[in-house]
Structures are given as structure tokens and as C-alpha cells.
Specification:
By secondary structure, the protein is α+β, with helices and mostly antiparallel strands. It has one domain. About 35% of the residues lie in helices and about 25% in strands. It has five helices and nine strands; from the N terminus they run ββββαββαβααββα. It has a five-stranded mixed beta sheet, covered by helices on one side. It has a four-stranded antiparallel beta sheet with strand order 1-2-3-4. A hairpin with a 4-residue loop joins β2 (about 10-15) and β3 (about 20). α3 (about 100-110) runs antiparallel to α4 and α4 packs across α5 (about 155-170). The termini are far apart.
Length: about 190
């Protein structure tokens, strides 16, 4: 561990991950591309079977989340799985897609907000735009006694982007699902009778 000057920049280097903590901003930025490779290498050298799941595939399921803020070391999570007798680990990684950033930009254009607020949203969207194609979410999970235990890591820039998207969605004008002719937008599949 190394402290550098007034900014209290702390550099943590482990064999398995590189994290930069900027204490002055309370910001933790994870290099998920590096972490992804290290987790896969670790799993490849272990006795775990790895199931490559679909990114976001766990969202609809009830999960028990690992406290990654206080215990960020994925090896502790995998050690827990091993001690519980589990052999199958679900792994998923997701990259930020350009369409997501474009959609957020379009929502910002449609939102009626003060100029100062708009600049703040633009800043958050620009930060995400710099990371298009980069890993924005990692999930490893295991099932034990019908409960899904999940370790998920997301960088701060992606969390801020998601918060901006949620806020923008709340600021958009309400739209009706009924077309001008009074029929549902599902193309008249169902009868009005």
C-alpha cells in the first residue's frame, strides 16, 4: 500500500486485481477487463466447473448479494462456494454498448430540464461514452440449497450512468400506449368486443 501526498491516493496491487482508490473523491474505479481475466484464470486453475451465463440473466431471480464494498476479493466469495460444497460457478460479463449511450442521449434531448442540470447529465453520459465496449458488469454466482449467491462488480462510471438513465426516465413526459385511433399499440390483435 502506498500513500501519495494530500490527495491520499492509495494504490492497491494484488496478484488478482488492480483497484485505484481516490480517497479525496470517495471514488473506486475498477478495471473490470483485468478482473475478468483474472477471475477466469483463477476459475480455470481451480476445481470449479464454469457455466458461462447470459449477462443480466440473474436480474429476475431472487439473489443473495455478496458485500463487494467491504469484501471486494472474489477469491473469498469462491472460497465460500468451495466450503459450501459447490462445484458449479455461473460467470457472466457484460460490455457497455453504444446503443445504450445513444438512447440515454436521446432521452436527454427529450427531457425538459434546466440547462445546468442538462450539463450534469451530459457529463455523466460522456463518461460512459468513453467506456463503450468496456466491461461494465461482472457476475459470478453459485446455487446452494435453492438460493442463488452472487458476487457482482460494476465500476463507478457505470453506476453513475445507470443513475443518470433512471433519473432521465423519470423526467421524460408521460406517453400513452394508446394510438390516435383509440386502439391498443399491439396492432388490433385483440378484439374490442
Amino acid at each position: 500500500m502506498r500513500y501519495c501526498g494530500e490527495s491520499a491516493c492509495v494504490r492497491f496491487t494484488t496478484r488478482f486485481a488492480l483497484f485505484w482508490v481516490l480517497a479525496k473523491r470517495n471514488r473506486v474505479d475498477l478495471n473490470l477487463e483485468t478482473l475478468k481475466g483474472e477471475i477466469l484464470d483463477y476459475l480455470g486453475a481451480s476445481d470449479f466447473a464454469v457455466f458461462r451465463s447470459h449477462p443480466g440473466g440473474l436480474e429476475a431471480l431472487p439473489v443473495i448479494s455478496w458485500d463487494t464494498e467491504r469484501f471486494p476479493d472474489y477469491r473469498m466469495f469462491l472460497d465460500t462456494a468451495r466450503k459450501a460444497g459447490e462445484k458449479l460457478i455461473l460467470f457472466a460479463a457484460r460490455e457497455l454498448e453504444q446503443e445504450e449511450v445513444e438512447e440515454a442521449s436521446e432521452e436527454l434531448e427529450d427531457a425538459e430540464i434546466p440547462r445546468e442540470d442538462k450539463r450534469e447529465f451530459e457529463k455523466r453520459i460522456r463518461e460512459a461514452k468513453r467506456n463503450i465496449g468496456g466491461v461494465c458488469s461482472l457476475e459470478i454466482a453459485f446455487d446452494h440449497n435453492s438460493h442463488l449467491y452472487v458476487y457482482e462488480a460494476r465500476p463507478d462510471w457505470y453506476e453513475e450512468f445507470l443513475e443518470a438513465c433512471d433519473e432521465l426516465t423519470g423526467l421524460l413526459p408521460e406517453t400513452d400506449d394508446v394510438e390516435d385511433d383509440g386502439h391498443d399499440s399491439i396492432g388490433g390483435f385483440y378484439s374490442n368486443n
